[in-house]
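Hey team,

Filing this mostly as a record. A colleague (T.K.) asked me to run one chain through the structure pipeline before their review meeting, and I want the input and output archived in the tracker in case anyone asks later how it was produced. No errors, nothing strange. Just documentation.

Input sequence:
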Amino acid sequence: MKINTRTKKPDWLKIQLPNTADYKWMHQTIRDNKLHTICTSGKCPNAAECWGAGTATFMILGDICTRACKFCNVKTGKPLAVDTKEPLRIARSIKIMKLKHAVITSVDRDDLEDGGAGIWAKTILKVKELNPGITQEVLIPDFNGLHHLIQQVIDAKPEVISHNLETSRRITPIIRSRAKYDLSLEVLKYIADAGVVAKTGIMVGIGETEEEVLQTMKDAYNVGVKVFTIGQYLQPSKEHLPVAEYVTPEQFAKYKKAGLEMGFKYVESGPMVRSSYHAERHINALKAEN
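Output structure:
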């Protein structure tokens, strides 16, 4: 895999976060309630835009992951004890922030017997209880492929369940510390077969070929995935995997066209796209079809 460590970030990747009162207020609300968001932990470049659209991505089960993937900025190590009051705090914060759509993700908790599935279900249900009418997308770990744990999340009935493939089959063992490509496909198939909207996403610019991206999209479509996202990988620190290539907006547009032609209901493909980017639009687009 060819790694380019000298290429400067192109103009299409340069953004400036707005210094607005709403942005500061939502950031303060998250801090005051001792919550974690992937918007901040993952250094997402779209935080202000999503928050301004009434969407935020919360990260449950702490901010320390049991896995150490080479692309991820979330801390890794021994997690703290599970906070059983977290579901209520998440739900209350969503109400205070007046969110229309909530995305919930988590660190991997391989240290827990249930992988955190119990807290997952409680969080989804508590958010619904305190925020009638809100829609939810959940971005879940693989739960080591255990169906009865994935089922707990399905039974809580979020509108969309996402699990990211992250990259192509060939690159998976290079950048993902424990997750397996085929296992992730099995998780997505189980979700889709349960009648839930299944979603996945990948990063590009880490050494993959165009053919590998297209094959990954086909693999996801063949197991029932309806929503697919593609974004540029950005190196979060010097200790993480370097960027191999900055993919052009034209190439992202090509991927989007190919995905829609394959049959995906919704494709987000662009340099600044992250898995939860414009998540509320996915819900609206799918509702319009029903």
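Quick notes for T.K.: The chain has a mean pLDDT of 86. The chain has eleven helices and ten strands.
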